[in-house]
Amino acid sequence: MHGLVRRTSSLNRDRIDGLRDAAKARSLPFELHYGNLIDPLGLQAVIGRVKPSEIYNLASESHVGISFEEPEHSTSVNAVGVLRLLEIMRLTRPECRFYQASTSELFGGLALRPREASPGAARSPECVCTETSPFEPISPYAIAKQYAHAMTAFYRRGYGLHASNGILFNHESPRRGFNFVTRKITATLARIARGADEVLFLGNLDSRRDWGYAPDYVRAMWMITTADVADDYVIATGETRSVREFVERAAAVAGFEIAWEGAGPAEAGYDRATGRRLVAVEPRFFRPLDHSSICGSAAKAKAVLGWEPTVGFGRLVEIMMESDLGRA
To answer: Which of 34, 87, 170, 279 is 20 to 30 A from residue 117's alpha carbon, by CA?
Structure first.
């Protein structure tokens, strides 16, 4: 097993430290190499040394909000970086299998459209996306990812590479970065539960996401990459939950019951037992455009690959909250 890491002034590998021990226990090689998707010569050198049989491209500038602040960097890494990998593969390792991490953000604009129900049918509150749904990216991050997705499909069809896209909806775990809303919720509530004098500041509480458990989704990546035929797959749970629901579930694990008061930017969540303010809305965390109700259908992955998620929303929140309570 080989991994690519960017050079930084301080080590930030705590989320993968356990991998080295796990590999050692199974007598498997585990080696890290310095590299960067914006450095094609470096990428070519690493691939030439390692000669991989499978490449999983999970590297990206992965924060949607930050992509609005750094659109050029997001594009260089998330779009052109993938082209660099594919072209190096085509020229030097055409037998290698390639997995590209696509994203549900490709469908973002679909949730902003008004949806009409058929005569006599109830109007669906959600937009369910499949592999054939049109892409409507609404962030620099998603636009760059659309380019990468299209290039991966092009190299598969045009050059015969075993190159697949996994269109993964949100996948969470205790390893999630602290600047993502799910981990921000669990880490902050854990500190509050342990006595910290803090308030959890959030943006749109009613924004909804299709949240799944990261280990389930990593298993899907492997199944996609090792399938006989390369193809593109949506990986999702098929249901959405709001940020508000995530907060309520996490708070319950931490021993709080949230009582909401106010509306819009003035809304806040209070501990019903003590009246203490735990959650507040901060308008600067709202995105310029935000899809509020979108989920995916993994029917193709279930039928072709036999993939099924094993952890539901409630258990996912418990896993993350219990982990951060332990850390706190």
So the answer is: 170
